[in-house]
Structure formats: structure tokens, C-alpha cells
Specification:
- The chain is α+β, with helices and mostly antiparallel strands.
- It has a single domain (20-158), classed as Alpha-Beta Plaits, CATH 3.30.70.
- Helix content is 46%, strand content 12%.
- A 4-stranded antiparallel sheet has the order 2-3-1-4.
- 27% of the residues are buried.
- This is Nucleoside diphosphate kinase.
- Keywords: ATP-binding, Kinase, Nucleotide-binding, Transferase.
């Protein structure tokens, strides 16, 4: 009996902890200027993900260079930083089961021309240089990006009333 209970509670813990995966999503300056923040939030909420952190911020050059450090050697890096400095951004942290992978699918391809209809970029963008949104590409990257943009005290740990309607027990 103990083994059965242990297995059951281990299964519940593993299943529930999967719901706690977090990703970093940021509406870029063009998305903010075009008034698309609400549309993007709406899509993530409608999917069933939980918003645990959000703010509007004029990012510093130093922060952006840290955020995009893996692209530093690319020819477009300078233009990317200039573009990201051109206006406020809206960084967010979303939580849920497979939120990193699902969030990337919801965003669409980096180049909007390659994005399927129904994705954020497929529906709302035309050019890669104005693709309105950034999303973490792995759980490890999400942790790094969340740490760059948010302090722990800025993230909320809460349970939405509809959680049992989104996730199986």
C-alpha cells in the first residue's frame, strides 16, 4: 500500500511540477507601438497559460546586449540593438505545462513569411526585422532571460480559479 501511495504522490508531484514550467516572452518595440500587447496576452491566456510577471520597460543597451549575447557576432547585431532601443518593450513571464515549446509554436517562425496563419507572427507581421515578439527557445534559456529581466520578488506564485479546467488532476 505504501508503494502505491508513494507512486501516486510521485506521479501527482511530477505532473503538477510540469505545470510550473516558465518561459520568457517579450513584446518588442514595434508590437508595443502597434498596440498588440493585449492581443498577445489574450492568446496566451486563452491557451490556458498563467501570467506570473509583466512590466513595461525602456531597456538599456547593456541589458539588451546581455539578452542577445549569442548573436553578438552576427552582422545584424548592431541594428537589432538599435531597433530594441527604439521604444519600450513588455517583458512577461508565463507559466504552464510545456509553455516554452508551445509558446514558440504560438509565436511562429522568426521570419513572419515562413509563419503559419494562426500564429502571432503569421497573423500580425510581415518582415523579420519587425517580428513584434521574442520567446525563449529552451527551458535553460528561459531561466537565463527571466533572471535578466525580473527579480524573484516581481514574479507572482498564484493559482487561477480555472486551473482544474485547464489541467487534468
Amino acid at each position: 500500500m505504501f508503494t502505491v501511495l508513494f507512486s501516486f504522490f510521485t506521479w501527482i508531484t511530477i505532473k503538477m511540477s510540469g505545470n510550473k514550467e516558465r518561459t520568457f516572452i517579450m513584446v518588442k518595440p514595434d508590437g508595443v507601438q502597434r498596440g498588440l500587447v493585449g492581443e498577445i496576452i489574450k492568446r496566451f491566456e486563452a491557451k490556458g497559460f498563467k501570467l506570473v510577471g509583466i512590466k513595461m520597460k525602456q531597456a538599456s543597451e547593456e541589458l539588451l546586449k546581455k539578452h542577445y549575447e549569442e548573436l553578438a557576432g552576427k552582422p545584424f547585431f548592431g541594428g537589432l540593438i538599435k531597433y530594441m532601443l527604439s521604444g519600450p518593450v513588455v517583458p512577461m513571464v508565463w507559466e504552464g505545462l510545456n509553455v516554452v515549446k508551445t509558446g514558440r509554436v504560438m509565436l511562429g517562425e522568426t521570419n513572419p513569411a515562413d509563419s503559419k496563419p494562426g500564429t502571432i507572427r503569421g497573423d500580425l507581421c510581415i518582415q523579420v526585422g519587425r517580428n513584434i515578439i521574442h520567446g525563449s527557445d529552451s527551458v535553460e534559456t528561459a531561466k537565463r532571460e527571466i533572471g535578466l529581466w525580473f527579480e524573484d520578488k516581481e514574479l507572482s506564485d498564484w493559482a487561477p480559479a480555472q486551473q482544474s479546467w485547464v489541467y487534468e488532476d
